[in-house]
Design goal:
alpha/beta, five-stranded parallel beta sheet, 9 helices, binds cobalamin
Length: about 240
């Protein structure tokens, strides 16, 4: 006779058990459980910022490590990121009202003009959110004007551009030149990514960093903003 699977009732777990369970659930991409767990912690008086950093971000950090090490693959990471977003959905309105949003930094990200690939960009965006960045996603097919507008509006610490085609990747250089001409390059970091890119290309167009994959991109972004929590971040250049 087979042993029936044990059903875990999240409400019955103490805080430590619940946090561990939620991190497992993030890893397994279980959005309903993560959302419910978030609700329970908030109901027990947890600070929203603490739930974000100690539970969701930490859970996503483990996912990022296993993705980098080839243990998890793209579909699984997307599910984990989606599960985390379930919890984020409850926290965002609370955090938006409070003064103590512990943001790692602001990050504007978009795929360049002529290019409609967005899976990698979305993944990087989600992982950045998981690491505590405030991410403004411009979607696909962005020309210089679109990036400029977003920089003006959001005042990001980092601009990230994605390109998957050899025909569209040179456009990143065009954007960077324009930022330089307007004196904006001094005020923010620029990261680039996409399958056909490499470090040499990134250096050649004067980007601050090339993100080979989502995990590397998050680490690099954190390093670029100096790893400082809050708004007092390292100067760009
Ligand atoms: C899925 C896909 C599509 C989908 C895109 C769906 C979507 N919503 O994105 C569709 C079917 C629409 C598509 C269309 C086309 N595609 Co396509 N596509 C792919 C494919 C198979 C996978 C790309 C992908 O999502 N990879 C998975 C993600 C997770 O990886 P990634 O994008 O590299 O992102 C990671 C890193 O690069 C980095 N990263 C990515 N962006 C960023 C940004 C920043 C800021 C940072 C820091 C890091 C970072 O982190 C990510 C996560 O780890 C690739 C083949 C391949 N193996 O790359 C071809 C590929 C990119 N496509 C190709 C082509 C030619 C096309 C088309 C022109 C086909 C056609 N004739 O119509 C069109 C282009 C249309 C256009 N104008 O953009 C070629 C490009 C060849 C080249 N040298 O330029 C490829 C390489 C296939 C091939 N071998 O021929 N494509």
């Amino acid at each position: 006779m087979s042993v029936p699977e044990e059903t875990i009732v999240l409400e019955d777990l103490n805080d430590t058990e619940l946090v561990a369970q939620m991190q497992d659930d993030i890893y397994d991409g279980l959005i309903e459980e993560v959302t419910q767990g978030t609700q329970i912690l908030l109901g027990r008086g947890w600070d929203a910022n603490l739930v974000l950093t100690e539970v969701l971000v930490e859970g996503m950090r483990v996912v990022g490590v296993d993705f980098r090490d080839g243990i998890l693959f793209v579909p699984e990471v997307l599910l984990s990121a989606n599960a985390m977003k379930g919890g984020m959905g409850l926290l965002r309105p609370i955090l938006a009202q409070s003064d103590n949003i512990s943001s790692t930094g602001k990050y504007v990200i978009g795929t360049v003009k002529g290019d409609i690939h967005d899976i990698g960009k979305n993944l990087v965006g989600m992982m950045l959110e998981g690491a505590g960045f405030e991410v403004f996603d411009l979607g696909i097919n962005n020309g210089v004007e679109s990036y400029l507008e977003a920089i003006d509006k959001h005042q990001p610490h980092i601009l990230g551009m994605s390109a998957l085609l050899t025909t569209t990747m040179p456009y990143m250089g065009v954007v960077i030149e324009e930022l330089d001409k307007r004196g904006i390059l001094k005020e923010l970091h620029v990261m680039v990514g996409g399958a056909p890119l490499n470090q040499e290309f990134s250096d050649a167009i004067n980007a601050d960093g090339y993100g080979r994959d989502a995990a590397v991109s998050v680490e690099l972004a954190k390093a670029l903003v100096g790893g400082i929590q809050g708004r007092a971040l390292a100067p760009a250049r």
